[in-house]
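Raw record, unedited: TF-B3 domain-containing protein
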Amino acid sequence: ATKRSPSGYSSDENDEDKNPSFEVLMKDSYIKQDYMHIPKYFYDHILESHSTTVLRYDGKPWFMEINMGKRRWFKDG
């Protein structure tokens, strides 16, 4: 199981900005075509004016587009 902060904010004590974040243990079932769904509790942290985000894994950035329909998800950018 993946631990998450209930507020959706990073729990890293070194994170000065406290940017909203969530953690996902990636499984094949989370990827549909080239999309990754975003947890519902995280929606309020995504401003509609933003259409791009950065995912980080092992210190490497992945630039992603955000779909802003009824359901929000990351799309490979």
